[in-house]
Amino acid sequence: MDKTHLVDEITGHRRMRRNRKADWTRRLVQENRLTVDDLIWPIFIVPGTGIVDPITAMPGVNRMSVDKAVEAVKEAADLGIPAIATFPDIEMELRDETGSNSLVANNLINQATAAFKKAVPNIGVITDVALDPFTSHGHDGILRDGIIVNDETVDQIVRAAVMQADAGADIIAPSEMMDGRIGAIRRGLDASGHQDVGIMSYATKFSSGFYGPYREAINTSGLLKGDKNSYYISPANGTEAVRDAALDVEEGADMLMVKPGIAYLDICWRIKEAFGLPVFAYQVSGEYTQIKAAAMNGWIDGDRIMMETLLCFKRAGCDGILSYFAMDVARKLAKNG
Ligand code: PBG
Q1: Structural domain of residue 185, as residue ranges?
Q2: Considering only Cβ atoms within 10 Å of each terminal Cβ, which end of the chain, N or C, has fewer?
């Protein structure tokens, strides 16, 4: 009996490889595609002018002063990137116990937003309201007697969110995981005439080791006392994450985010299926760094894995991805037409 006959007996007419046989069949059956419209580019802002300061733990990523960031954001808009997400590296002397600089109308983050909206009006600006860039202890909220106090923090971030919207932010993205924040921010924005400012909730933010390089980027790693386990979700819990997202949907979130990304694709899928809202994944600093470091050692094909990971987010149901690779991806997509 010949071997072909044996295979036929098992597969019958079912041969998956027919659709994979040529480039044209593969293109025809491709289910998901990554385009420039899927990209949100996170950037780090520092005070001063003319500064482009490389972040050691994130090769290829820089902290930029507002003037330099404006140039970079122009380039992003020219490439067709729909939105940026900004994170400030605040001067140490402005950081305090309560993160009071978050309530200064022309603080670094708001200066940057105003500059971007003026110079590059056709790119969306997404701002975070967590307090960690502003606190002397590196936590996302107000720390009192060893506890991150929920309601007082919410009260402060609502006021910060309104100031960010006043400065021109298009979407407020609260990442500090306090309870009740989405509804409170929505009410605050509406009451101050910002009905059109959206909320992208960091609905499921996990307590993760993947944030390490980010904490170097905004200089919170040396400050952080303890961990963030009392407000971020445990990596062990999927159902709890879906429930947390459900509350944010009820409270009025326009978009949901899952963070970190690649290790949490199940959460992306569950949340997309459960709510049907636009879902975004944040491919965080540690994910970026892993790929970069291995590629720089010649151990993996970095470009290939960059494209593969972003496509996998699409397959998992994401409408878009926040990624430090956004500019590289946009350039690559532009080149390949
Ligand atoms: C905190 C915040 C974090 C990130 C953005 N804002 C996590 C943290 O420091 O705990 C992580 C982003 C990244 O790792 O790329 N509000």
Answers
A1: 31-336
A2: C
